[in-house]
Amino acid sequence: MIIQNPSSDPLSDVLALAGLKAACSVRLRAGGQWALRFQPIELKFNVVLRGECWLCMDGLPPRHLCAGDCFVVSRTPFVLASAPQIPAVNASEVFALSGSSAAYGVGDDVELLGGSVSLISPGAADLLDLLPPAIVIHAGSGGASSFAWLLDELDREWQSTQAGAYAMCNDLLRLIFVHALRHHITTADIADLAWLGGLRDPDIASVMRAVHGAPEKPWRLADMAEIASMSRSSFAALFKARVGQSPVEYATCWRMKVAASRLSRGDTSVAAVAASLGYLSDAAFGVAFRRVHGVSPGQYRRAFQP
HTH araC/xylS-type domain: from which residue to which, for each copy (predicted)? Predict the structure, then answer.
C-alpha cells in the first residue's frame, strides 16, 4: 500500500504553528433572572444544551441563543444572561465555589457546556487577530450538531481519569477550533476575513498551498501568477484584494513564521534554519527575519531557551 502525503493546507499549517492547549471544561445551569460575566484569556467555546439565554458584548447588539446554538469568543469579555441589561456577577466567583460545574440563579431553565483553550505559540496572536469577537453557529445550520457533539466529548474526556484523556482534550479542542474557523470562512463577509479570504478563491488558494508547501523557495511574482494561470498584474491585484498583502510579501512572511517556529524549538542553530529555508547567507536571513519579527534570529532563539 502506498500512502501519499496530502497537499499543503494553509489553515492547517497556521494551526500547527499556533499550538493548542486545553485550559478547562465547564458546565453551567442557571434559572430565574441571572447574568454572569466571563473574561476569556484567549478562546472560549460554548454550546446551549437546553433552554435559552442572551450573549451580550460591549459595542455589539445582544444575541439570542437557543438550545443547540454554539458560539466562540476570542479574548473579549462577554455576559451570558437570562435577558439583556441585567447586572452581571463575575463568573469566576461562581465557579470558584463549585469547580467545573456550577449552578446560578433560581431554578434550572438553561444549561450550557463550555471549554477554554490556550494558544501556546508566538504565532497564535496572528490567528486570534483574524477572528471577530464572537462566532455564532445557530442550531439550524449544518455544523451546529457536530460542534455540540465535540464539546460533549470534550467534557466527557476532561472529567474522566482515563489514560490519554488530556491528549484527547487537546485534539478535541483543535477540532472544535477548526470547525469554528471553517464556519467563519464560509459565512463571513470576505472583506472581514483578512488572509483567510484567500482560501475562498480557488486561484488564490492554489498559490497559498504552493507557498506553504515550499517555504524554502524564493517565490517570485511570475512563479505564483503561473500557478494561478493569470497575468502578473491581474494576479497581484486579486491576491492583494483577497489576502491584504502582495504575493511576495505574503510568501516572505510565511517563510519567516516557519523560521520563527523552528528557532523557538531551541535545538537548531540559526545557520541551520537559514539554510533549511533556502538562504545562502546568515546575514540575508537575519535582515529578512528582523524585518518581519523586529528582532534578530539569535535574539528570538535565545528568548525560548530555558
Answer: 205-303
